[in-house]
Amino acid sequence: MFSFKNLLSALSLVALVHALPAKPIQRRTGFGSMCSTTQFNLSNSVPADFNFTQPNTTFPTFVALSVGTQNYTCGDDGTWSPIGAITELYDISCIPQEEHANFTTMIADMWENSPNTWTSEDIVLSTEAANGPTALGMHYWISDPNNATSGKIFAKWDFGMSRMMEVTDMNTAFVVCSETDVVPDPINPVLNSAWLYEPVLYVDGQKDGQLADQVYRFNSNGGSAPNTTCRANFDFLQVKSTLNFWFYGGAWVNTTSSS
């Protein structure tokens, strides 16, 4: 049984840099990624037959590990209905792309084998309190910014409590996106959440956040609701989830060092 300290240690800077054979660190400037992301290529991680909308820029602005839970409530029909997620995001730009999937699975195994008394909120609070160099921020969901009564929810990535807590313009520290491309996980779609392409959401003709213009979700480990019945409008479920997000474009696209 892993301890909570072991899990957090695996997410620390030392583990991220030394757990796998990485190239020498080439740091980015300001609030950007810990290492340059110019070497990362989405086509090497996402199969071509997924037909995802292509990135508007050559390389990502941020590459992140997401650790937390996918959340569900019981719908009127007695089946699980998604109501978003709560996860902590970690910078994995110093790990070679070819090792991202294996590293994500390693962290997922540690998270899955941790006691059920440890929640995604525990990971978030512990990481934010430590505010280590790998911490990027939080991922969670919000009500429809265009229509509060629509019942829809949208994904938000918020770096304002970690990596970018000191930025002058907080609009550059978050982004809200919609889902347009959804593909079942290619390994185990029953257990693992779908792979997604998520473009920035527009509110009153303006981008809702400037952290990124496009977000891709892949390398999913867990996160899908079980195929079981539940008590309508009563039961609540959190399913452990570990995966990767890549962020393209946005206000920080020019912080990448090509050296």
TrEMBL record:
Coiled coil: none annotated. The keyword Transferase does not apply. InterPro entries: DUF3455. Residues 1-19 form the signal peptide. The keyword Signal applies. It holds the Pfam family DUF3455. Keywords: Signal. It comes from the Eukaryota. This is Glycoside hydrolase family 16 protein. It comes from Phanerochaete carnosa (strain HHB-10118-sp). The lineage of its organism: Eukaryota, Fungi, Dikarya, Basidiomycota, Agaricomycotina.
